[in-house]
Amino acid sequence: MEQSKLDRINELYKKQKQSGLTESEKAEQSVLRKEYVGLVTKNLKGSLKTIKIQDENGNITPLKKKNS
Predict the structure, then answer these.
(1) Residue 7 has what pLDDT?
(2) pLDDT at 68 over 80
(3) What are the C-alpha distances in Å from 32 to residues 11, 12, 66?
(4) Three-state DSSP string of the chain
(5) For 29-67, how does the pLDDT look when each residue is reduced to its tens digit (9 = 90+)?
(6) Which of 11, 25, 34, 68 is the most buried (most CB within 10 A)?
(7) pTM of the full predicted structure?
(8) How many angstroms separate the CA atoms of 41 and 27, rounded?
(9) Of 36, 12, 14, the residue nearest 25 (C-alpha)
């Protein structure tokens, strides 16, 4: 995500706390937040795919997805 979008998220947050947002600003904030959360989720999933676990016998196995 570009730094300008991160800066805009922060600007909108500060303005929301100080004086409130217009409807168009609320919509913009929602879109930017969804994009940000999507990127964070994608990066986290990518990181989790690289994790391997070593048991007490020295065997290394990849982290498996838990079925819920």
Answers:
(1) 96
(2) no
(3) 12, 10, 30
(4) CCHHHHHHHHHHHHHHHHCCCCHHHHHHHHHHHHHHHHHHHHHHHHHHHCCEEECCCCCEEECCCCCC
(5) 999 999 999 999 999 999 988 999 999 999 999 888 777
(6) 25
(7) 0.73
(8) 21
(9) 12
Q: How far apart are CA 9 and CA 7, in angstroms?
A: 5
Q: Using the structure block, give the residue that is written with the tokens 């995500």.
A: 1
Inter-residue contact 55 to 61 (CB < 8 Å): yes
Which residue is it, tokens 């500060």? 14
- Phi and psi, residue 3, nearest 5°: -60, -35
Place of tokens 């986290």: 44
